[in-house]
Predict the 3D structure of the following.
Amino acid sequence: MNKTLLVATYEYKHHVAKKRFWLTLLLLPLGFAILILLSMLLSRSSYDFRPIGLVDKADIISLEPDNSAKSTFFNPQIYLHTFPDEAGAKKAVETGEIQGFAVIPEGYLASYQLDYWTNKQPAGEVQSKIIGFISQNLLAAEEADPAILERLSSGNQISLESLDGKTKSDGTGWHKIFVPILIGILNLIVVMYSGGYLLQALVEEKENRTMEILLTSVPPREMMTGKIIGNLSVGLTQIAVWALILFAGLIIFSDRLSFLADIELSGSYLAVSLALLLISFIFTAALMATIGATMTSIQESQSVTGLIVLPMMLPFYFINVFISNPNGVVARLLSYIPLSAPLALSMRMAFTSVPAIEIAFVFALLIGLTVLMIWLASVAFKRGMLQYSQKLSLRSLFKKEVNHA
Amino acid sequence: MSTIHVKNISKSFGDTQAVKDVSFEVNPGEIFGLLGPNGSGKTTSIRVILDIYQPDSGSVEILDGPMTDEKLNRVGYLPEERGLYQDVEVNRCLSYLATLKGMTKAQIDKTLPAWLERFDLTEHQKKKNKELSKGMQQKAQLIAALIHDPEIIIIDEPFSALDPVNTQLVKDLLRELRSAGKTIVMSTHQMNQVETLCDRLVLIDYGKVLLEGGLSEIQDQFRTNQVIITTASPLPEKLEGVAKIEPMNGNFRLSPAEGTNAQDLLGLLVNQGVRLNTFEVATPSLDEIFIQVVKKG
């Protein structure tokens, strides 16, 4: 009977029953929520969101300020109030009713010079709010098309394309990076946690000599595959729970996260990204298992684990390269490395169209490397697990006895 | 037909030759002693038998053929270095290891309580392994080796960390298993246990077989003409037909002169008026044989 499932089930239950699993599962999203909340609080405390005043001496304001948007904790609004004269506006500043006021002088249309009166440095939003309102009024006086007004207020979008048409990039679609980054972070966290569990479990089994019992009960390949599947399932459980929390958060705060509505996710994009994530998990788990089987202590293995994180982080460092040249050498190279591939290919696909043949090549490469890594892990497992006091060198994994594993 | 047939196995680790051309057979239903000093190659031989290591040359037949995944379930193994999940409860750990040996949950639920009871671990079954004493851990490890009712039991130092009461418990159990037809390979340094339990043995040192055979056969092979006597009166300093007299714990060990055997010596002692309480042909202890063979080795 194949014992892979028995090993996988035990590994899964063993980790899920641990306090550490639940703490990670719940505290991580809670930590993120607290972090976001804290940054909002900091933002709120450092900015003045009180209304601003406007005194029109040039007689160019004909529209009423639009203060209809509701100001909330998550989406604070700076309202605009018009005052007939400076004295009234000054009094409102003194009473704290408004944070400051702008005066449109009589010669404004010649000088385009505004005066702003306040006791405190205004936020950038204050200036854009006043200028935006004045522009609206000037255009309204010219009886401009409302669609043009809307287009002017939302700005331009520039698409970049190389002369041969192979490289395309939407330089302004910054929000497209949201999904790949999310995938990258998930990859990093889950691989580190579930891969970390696996590595720790193997080193512990080696340290406490349980391995010799296991080796006389389960063939090495079934043992290793079971451990990888079990620990992978722990990671996938974490992702599923976090995805549910994220989904619930998106529903609850949908009106506050309007920029997310701009993100277009195709089914194939999601499928490719998730499949890459899965292969990367298996590859990294097998890599961790290989390290676990060759190391002699947990401390030693932890220091090596740190090195695995580096290639996983590389696409984050080269994020500008991915946006400006998603089909360039760096972006392509990082798509072919198993540890960086989920984030790299996902980012490229977000900013350009990656040829299907290349996606197929990356998948074939990663699957091949993953199978090789699982094989290597089972060799290391059998050969290294009984070497209690000495490390197993990489070279020795490929020596004569390899064919017996 | 032997249960285990080790044929000329050799195994090296780098420049170290751990086992060199070792051969022996273990018969069904016997307790077989695998003896040797520390570092002699016993554990390597066991690992080769269990297919943990592949031999550089030679082969092992177990239950009429090479080791297979299916045969792993028919073998129980107690390694020299104890290995249990330290952070896991005793019953959970043993249940898991039993499932890896092919037992169903129903079988485990039926069998495990009896084993825990027999080894006096019932009240400790919810404790983590690390909370058990060394002796208790040894008993739990024995349960892991035996719970699936294996046909072949390979035990390395089974009496390690056990007090006399538990040592007796394990000895009785091993005899019981032998009576039930199980084949047992026991590796130990405790020669007195080998003497009282083993039917046959092999002695290896520096990876080579120095001695193999039945216990009584080997003792006969090393038996001298020496006799051990206890007397009702003091012995004279010189006796006819005796080359050497050695007092030992109230007894005397007599070495017959050349050309005299034990039977002759008995007559000579009686004729010389020695009042004998006991007269026994000296049988060399396994300890003595072990030291003698290893020193010669």
